[in-house]
């Protein structure tokens, strides 16, 4: 009882102080140390956060008052919190807002008074409405103060108030960029004048707040549909505040004020908890904003958002087709991703609709209908084929109406990769590690078959580092795959995620820069030489032992290699024409080629070791001439396939890397680098095969055995890795073991149980089958010796008897 009395007295004291401090410039002018927020001890953003926290505490007290038998104490505490928030505003924020935006200051005063009345009356809905209005009212005041200070050449005030703002990124749709902060930094360094920076800062703020306006409308709809009217009131307050920033500009552009009328109707409906009327008015509000463009988008912004819209729309089908079967959700995480990508597509389309509608009104209307139909299909777990059809139509409309080049969508891809990594982090935080791993693979696949192909050409070290961070790390440092497999903590994950995000940002900067033709030529040559060198080593290893009587087996091997070279050229042509198709299926194609190469290599090397190296140079064939003739064609075909798949695997990868460079510099410049690289490969190949002819036969056998073993280990490891990338195999890191990343780059050795066991299994298969063949050959020799002895014994007895 005593503590309750003290609480009452404290609350009344705070309210008294608040009443004694009128919201006016005359009373605050006597406090010079607080008249300029630019020189205030407390930053503007901190004051705003304190106000928001105090008002939230007031709201909680009203919720508690509902459940209390004696609510007076809660109401007094709520009033005290409102008074505290008001005091923060008076002492720190009001002076500058009153100076540059007096009318807005008066509106904020009125809202604080309304909030106090609601707290005293215990009206939680009215307080929630006031909370939303106060927050966006302060943002509006900060916006006007910033613009006023820019006009007055007051750099310090601009810097102080730019600390209190919101950014576009309320969801995962965009990466947070701050042109305003960049422009201010340029002013402070003398690169720009305040006059030049003013439109940059204004457009950045308007772009961010219009984005937030649309988000507030979405949140309001969600609250109304769930009959959460207190929450709806708060979002309505924010929506009103955001719209107030644009009201004058909207009226000037559109010549009407229907959004304001719709907001008034929503407020009336929410006050009586009429969900239907509120939703109808909200639909009118949204429709009125359909063709309003608060900030003219640049061509680059239109292209980037268009590529995002295209990718998000495409990913709706990509995720949905794996999420449902027979009208039921079978993979919830995939369904969630499909829904999220659809929401992002809608948000991005809302930004682009005025631009599209200005030149293609029918296409804009159809895209709007397609997104609505997709939402209906996802809500009802509709047919996959219907989703696929709508997505395909939508992508065609997006490409045609915005004239997009979807072969050059690196920036948009980075945005989606970062968005997926946000989901991975959320899954780790919720301890949904299977979901985290699935989403990690999606993010890596987008990076691997998109930006990484170009990055390998411009900054291979950075590409390798990003690859390691996505997977198992490098040396003692962990990667995302290892942390997820070990079910690591959110803090541990965030450390690696931050490093990965920094590397991705660096990669985006590198890929966004224009490259000189000479750089492209050299990079093309390096790619061809690197991949060609691997091909030379493989063919040299396989052909080294084919000497003397076995030299004929080189022909099918080399024939397969030549065919692979020709098919690689055809792949270049196909990839150039159908790059989008390769982007969708490239990893799977690489996995298939790797599997075929691995299978043929195991079979052929097993046969070759037995028949060429250790079984007396095909001596057994002379005793079974008919079998030899029947089996020779199969062996020739097998060697041809081996030569083809071994080389085409490298050629396929080379095509992917070079296509990335073609997007930057064109075919002719890249072809110069290709020719230069081929000359280097030819020189190395000539030297390698010349050396083979001068090595003693037994040394060649040893060298060849070692080389083929290394090729086998590398191919097995890389095949397992690419199958893990496309989720055909699971990923189980070896706990406590982390190899240097170059082991994987050069030898295909990665610290996963799947890869290591597969490599051990391949070695056991070849070595074990050799020893088995040796055992069988020895057994056959013993049996032959026994048969000869048995045949010789009667003859010896007969000879002895004749004597």
Automatic annotation (TrEMBL):
The source's superkingdom equals Bacteria
Transmembrane ranges? 520-545, 557-579, 591-609, 633-649, 669-689, 701-720, 756-773
Q: Which InterPro entries match?
A: FTR1/Fip1/EfeU (IPR004923)
Membrane among the record's keywords? yes
One of the record's GO molecular function terms: ferrous iron transmembrane transporter activity
Q: Write out the GO cellular component annotations.
A: high-affinity iron permease complex
Q: Where in the cell is it found?
A: Membrane
The primary location reported for this protein is membrane
Q: Which UniProt keywords apply?
A: Membrane, Transmembrane, Transmembrane helix
Give the membrane topology, semicolon-separated if more than one. Multi-pass membrane protein
Q: Which family does it belong to?
A: Belongs to the oxidase-dependent Fe transporter (OFeT) (TC 9.A.10.1) family.
Q: What is this protein called?
A: FTR1 family protein
Origin species, per record, is Phototrophicus methaneseepsis
Q: What is the lineage of its organism?
A: Bacteria, Bacillati, Chloroflexota, Candidatus Thermofontia, Phototrophicales
């Amino acid at each position: 009882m005593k503590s309750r009395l003290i609480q009452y007295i404290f609350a009344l004291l705070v309210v008294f102080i608040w009443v004694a401090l009128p919201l006016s410039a005359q009373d605050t002018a006597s406090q010079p140390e607080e008249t300029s927020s630019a020189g205030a001890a407390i930053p503007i953003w901190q004051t705003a956060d304190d106000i928001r926290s105090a008002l939230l505490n007031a709201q909680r007290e009203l919720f508690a008052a509902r459940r209390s038998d004696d609510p007076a104490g809660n109401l007094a505490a709520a009033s005290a919190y409102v008074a505290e928030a008001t005091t923060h505003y008076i002492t720190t924020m009001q002076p500058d807002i009153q100076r540059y935006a007096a009318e807005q200051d008066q509106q904020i005063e009125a809202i604080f008074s309304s909030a106090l009345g609601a707290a005293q009356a215990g009206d939680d809905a009215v307080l929630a409405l006031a909370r939303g209005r106060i927050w966006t009212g302060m943002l509006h005041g900060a916006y006007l103060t910033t613009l006023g200070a820019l006009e007055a050449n007051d750099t310090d005030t601009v810097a102080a108030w730019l600390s209190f703002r919101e950014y576009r990124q309320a969801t995962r749709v965009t990466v947070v960029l701050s042109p305003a902060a960049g422009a201010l930094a340029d002013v402070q360094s003398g690169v720009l004048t305040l006059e030049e920076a003013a439109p940059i800062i204004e457009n950045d703020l308007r772009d961010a707040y219009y984005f937030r306006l649309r988000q507030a409308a979405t949140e309001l709809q969600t609250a109304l549909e769930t009959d959460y009217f207190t929450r709806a009131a708060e979002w309505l307050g924010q929506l009103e505040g955001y719209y107030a920033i644009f009201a004058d500009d909207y009226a000037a552009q559109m010549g009407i004020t229907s959004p304001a009328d719709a907001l008034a109707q929503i407020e009336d409906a929410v006050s009586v908890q009429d969900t239907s009327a509120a939703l109808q008015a909200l639909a009118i509000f949204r429709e009125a904003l359909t063709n309003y463009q608060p900030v003219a988008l640049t061509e680059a912004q239109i292209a980037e958002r268009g590529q995002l819209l295209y990718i998000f729309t495409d990913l709706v089908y990509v995720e949905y087709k794996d999420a449902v079967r027979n009208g039921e959700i079978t993979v919830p995480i995939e369904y969630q991703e499909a829904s999220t990508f659809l929401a992002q597509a809608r948000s991005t389309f809302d930004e682009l609709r005025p631009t599209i509608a200005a030149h293609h009104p029918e296409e804009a209307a159809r895209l709007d209908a397609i997104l609505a139909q997709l939402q209906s299909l996802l809500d009802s777990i509709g047919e996959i084929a219907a989703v696929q059809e709508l997505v395909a139509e939508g992508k065609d409309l997006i490409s045609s109406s915005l004239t997009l080049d979807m072969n050059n969508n690196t920036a948009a891809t980075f945005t989606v990769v970062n968005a997926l990594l946000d989901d991975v982090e959320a899954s780790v935080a919720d301890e949904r590690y299977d979901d985290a791993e699935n989403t990690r693979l999606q993010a890596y696949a987008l990076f691997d078959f998109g930006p990484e192909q170009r990055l390998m050409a411009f900054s291979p070290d950075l590409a390798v580092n990003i690859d390691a961070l996505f997977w198992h790390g490098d040396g003692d440092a962990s990667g995302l795959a290892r942390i997820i497999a070990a079910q690591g903590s959110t803090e541990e994950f965030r450390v690696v995620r931050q490093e990965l995000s920094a590397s991705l940002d660096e990669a985006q900067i590198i890929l966004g820069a224009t490259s000189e033709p000479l750089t492209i030529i050299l990079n093309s040559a390096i790619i061809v030489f690197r991949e060609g060198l691997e091909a030379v080593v493989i063919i040299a290893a396989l052909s080294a032992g084919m000497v003397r009587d076995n030299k004929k087996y080189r022909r099918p091997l080399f024939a397969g290699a030549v065919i692979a070279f020709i098919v690689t050229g055809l792949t270049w042509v196909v990839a150039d024409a159908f790059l989008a198709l390769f982007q969708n299926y490239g990893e799977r194609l690489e996995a298939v080629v790797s599997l075929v190469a691995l299978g043929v290599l195991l079979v052929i090397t097993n046969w070759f070791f037995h028949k060429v190296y250790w079984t007396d140079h095909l001596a057994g064939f002379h005793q079974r001439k008919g079998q030899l003739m029947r089996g020779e064609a199969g062996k020739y075909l097998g060697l041809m396939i081996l030569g083809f798949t071994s080389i085409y695997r490298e050629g396929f990868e080379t095509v992917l890397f070079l296509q990335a460079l073609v997007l930057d510099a064109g075919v002719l410049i890249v072809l110069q680098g290709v020719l230069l690289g081929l000359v280097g490969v030819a020189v190395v190949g000539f030297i390698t095969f010349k050396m083979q002819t001068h090595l003693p036969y037994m040394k060649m056998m040893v060298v060849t055995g070692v080389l083929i073993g290394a090729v086998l280990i590398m191919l097995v490891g890389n095949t397992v890795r690419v199958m893990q990338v496309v989720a055909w195999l699971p990923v189980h890191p070896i706990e406590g073991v982390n190899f240097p990343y170059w082991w994987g780059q050069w030898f295909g050795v990665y610290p996963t149980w799947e890869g290591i066991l597969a490599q051990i299994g391949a070695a056991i298969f070849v070595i074990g089958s050799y020893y088995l063949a040796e055992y069988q050959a020895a057994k056959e020799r013993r049996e032959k010796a026994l048969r000869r002895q048995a045949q010789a014994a009667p003859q010896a007895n007969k000879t002895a008897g004749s004597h």
